[in-house]
Amino acid sequence: MKSCITISLVEEARGGPFVLWDGLEKSIDFAAQLGYDAVEIFAPGPEAIDADQLGKLLDRSGLKLAALGTGAGWVKHRLQLADPDPTKRQQAQAFVRSIVDLAGTFGAAAIIGSMQGPSGHTGNIDESLKFLAEALEDGATQAAKYDVPLIYEPLNRYETKQCCTVKAGVDLLESLSTDNVRLLCDLFHMNIEESDVAQALRDGGKWVGHIHFVDSNRRPVGLGHMSFGPIIDALREINYEGYLCAEAFPFPHPEEAARQTMRAFRYWTQQ
Ligand code: LER
Ligand code: MN
Description:
By secondary structure, the protein is α/β, with parallel strands linked by helices.
């Protein structure tokens, strides 16, 4: 398993669960100094990232781009993939494709999390799920051009009503005509929704494609009450070789949150 840390470039998301906030250059250099393998970047949109500059920063530091988040499509632009308005849905899908294109040039995946929309306001979960499935097919087709998967993240019940557990995520992915979507299992959401986090990961099996590595209270790993032993055992059992990515509150501050996660990553993966 490999280590990864989130960098947010989205001012509107201040207070959110992203660890590093100090721009790409400083954040990437700091992540490299701590020994991280990769970064996951949350950007306002593709135009906010200069691909040449990002390429140089990654080369210089030896870090990989693990993934790009699409959540700013919702947080900043109020676009969501299950919007009942077809024009807004198309705009949301175009936003996702633009992030898939940028991530794809780095051999990285785009993540669909908050962009799936809360869905509660339509009052029609089946319709929302149908729109979401169409969007996942669309994004996955685009991602396949770069030989990367699209990554889909079930969220807890306070953020979406469409799909809140690993089981619901697997059912959704299995209903698609593409097999190019993988699940992002965020341990914070799972702590709220699953009856057994480790068993849910085991059941997720081959569909588990990315992990948000965070404790029960969304603080860095080690600062909550999650049992990480069984979680790491389950990931080993399913031969998970992807990233454990720190998506946590920058508690008590970004530098210490990054250090704490790296200590926890080493502790849990080196035993
Ligand atoms: C995004 O990865 C996520 O987990 C959501 O809860 C948005 O913050
Ligand atoms: Mn997450």
